[in-house]
Amino acid sequence: xxxxxxxxxxxxxxxxxxxxxxxxxxxxxxxxxxxxxxxxxxxxxxxxxxxxxxxxxxxxxxxxxxxxxxxxxxxxxxxxxxxxxxxxxxxxxxxxxxxxxxxxxxxxxxxxxxxxxxxxxxxxxxxxxxxxxxxxxxxxxxx
Length: 143
Hints:
By secondary structure, the protein is an all-alpha fold.
């Protein structure tokens, strides 16, 4: 049974050696990653800083272009209010003119025809009076 004890001691020695290697590997990985972490952190901060600077410049340009637009909008609103006032005055003027321009109804005196008295002939239908007293007939003779 001596061989089993020796084998057990060899296995325990290997296990201790593996534990030591595991601790060393963990320390190595931690150092490697922490070194990379610092580099990565610095790269990210630089990139983010550059992006913030670009956005700030863009924002400044945008704000500078907004100020004239705001002023122009205010000027347009003032002009719109002036035009609204003019429109109200024009509508009032047009309303007054429409009231004064309505034609007055005049009574038109239309002469009424005389009542029919007696008999008429067909020839009389062909002849009729003009306003100046001339008689026109269908046989084209003037009287």
